[in-house]
Amino acid sequence: MNKPYKVKVSVSLDEDIIDEIKELAEKDDRSFSQYINLILKEHVAKSKTIDE
Q1: What percent of the chain is helix, strand and coil (3-state, nearest 5)?
Q2: HSE, side-chain direction, 13 A CA sphere, residue 11
Q3: Tens-place pLDDT, residues 10-23
């Protein structure tokens, strides 16, 4: 099975949240992008279950 295609995007984030996410990503041994992707996937999945 192929990995999903990744698309580059540009977003503006508050500096304090960037620092926090970088710290959490490092603790989880992930890159900044990997960690944001994980957070967003979890949020979307949780939102779907709330809507159902």
Answers
A1: 65, 0, 35
A2: 11
A3: 999 999 999 999 99
Query: Which residues fall within 8 angstroms of residue 28, CB to CB, at 6 or more apart?
Result: 35
pTM to 2 decimals?
0.80
Each residue of 1-52: pLDDT tens digit?
A: 677 788 999 999 999 999 999 999 999 999 999 999 999 999 999 998 877 6
| Contact (CB, 8 A) for 30 and 38 | yes
Residues whose CB falls within 8 Å of the CB of residue 30, separated by 6 or more in sequence, listed in order: 38
Q: What is the DSSP string of 35-52?
A: HHHHHHHHHHHHHHHHH-
